[in-house]
Amino acid sequence: MNHLEHSMAALINSELSRVCDPAQCGRLQGLLQPPSLLSLAWDYGRPDERFDCWQVGRSLCGRVLLVYCESGFGPSFPWGFVSAAEGSMGMDSQWHSGLEDAAIGAGLLPAPAGYEAPGPRTNPLV
Description:
By secondary structure, the chain is α+β, with helices and mostly antiparallel strands. Helices cover 25% and strands 25% of the residues.
């Protein structure tokens, strides 16, 4: 594992530590995979603009990817879910301040009772 992959693994572990419910954490861990770089189209910039993102997980059917990207909607909302078939970062509503929130937004995890998607974190990397 290179330095960047190691840093992403540490960031993912930090996100997992934020999940309060052990069953929810287990479901989220079941969606994860070793981080790998992925280039996604940025539809809000110059024609053909792309950003390097980290694919960190996927739905069981493989159609939805969980990703991390400091560009585009990051750093305020660096965790997203995208369509594997489209190769695009998609819309702002697909991007969240946390990994669990991205998985909930994608419908890959159940939302806890009274859940509301949080806004940006004061420190996005915490």
